[in-house]
Amino acid sequence: CCQCCQDRGAFSEVVLAEEKQTHRLVAIKCIPKKALQGKETSIENEITVLQKIKHPNIVSLEEIYDSPTHLYLVMQLVAGGELFDRIVERGCYTERDASQLISQILHAVHYLHQLGIVHRDLKPENLLYCGQEEDSPIMISDFGLSKLEDKGSVMSTACGTPGYVAPEVLAQKPYGKAVDCWSIGVISYILLCGYPPFYDDNDAKLFE
């Protein structure tokens, strides 16, 4: 397949690839196995979650390739950019436009919760537009912190992004699916106001 570099992260890079037979474009996340040392459980969890998901508002995992040196995740290509960038560009959204976006996110999160999946890191940077069009569908991405709920157990690991994390997570109390709903509330506020409800350069003060 023909490839060109699309994005490079701390532990992986994403390349644009074209399937030879169909000429369909996909995004391939290339993860060096050296970078996975000590993080095997995390990537296995992410793959397990992604393999359970098929929803029009969630970026899908299509195939996995394993080589001696790399793990390759073939992902659905979404080329419209982050919601974060559109917020910066627009300043704020009308109630109508915001409600259309939030409705899509709620439907996708409801689907995840029905499967027992908690995303745990919903934020504008992890919400991608499928295309460049103004009314393009919004897609949930990045399931690196997601968790499959086990029957009879609760989550207590403190994780997520400052400003979007629910109070019970910060307090290191047991929590469940409701933490995603808190994050959606924060995103709704940002869409309508153009700025976050909670902000401080100092994370410790922000968490207070």
From TrEMBL:
Q: Which UniProt keywords apply?
A: ATP-binding, Kinase, Nucleotide-binding, Serine/threonine-protein kinase, Transferase
InterPro entries in UniProt: Kinase-like_dom_sf, Prot_kinase_dom, Ser/Thr_kinase_AS
The Protein kinase domain is annotated at 1-208
Q: Superkingdom, according to UniProt? A: Eukaryota
- Protein name per its UniProtKB record: Calcium/calmodulin-dependent protein kinase type 1-like protein
Any keyword Cell membrane?
A: no
Q: Name one GO molecular function term.
A: ATP binding
UniProt-listed SUPFAM superfamilies: Protein kinase-like (PK-like)
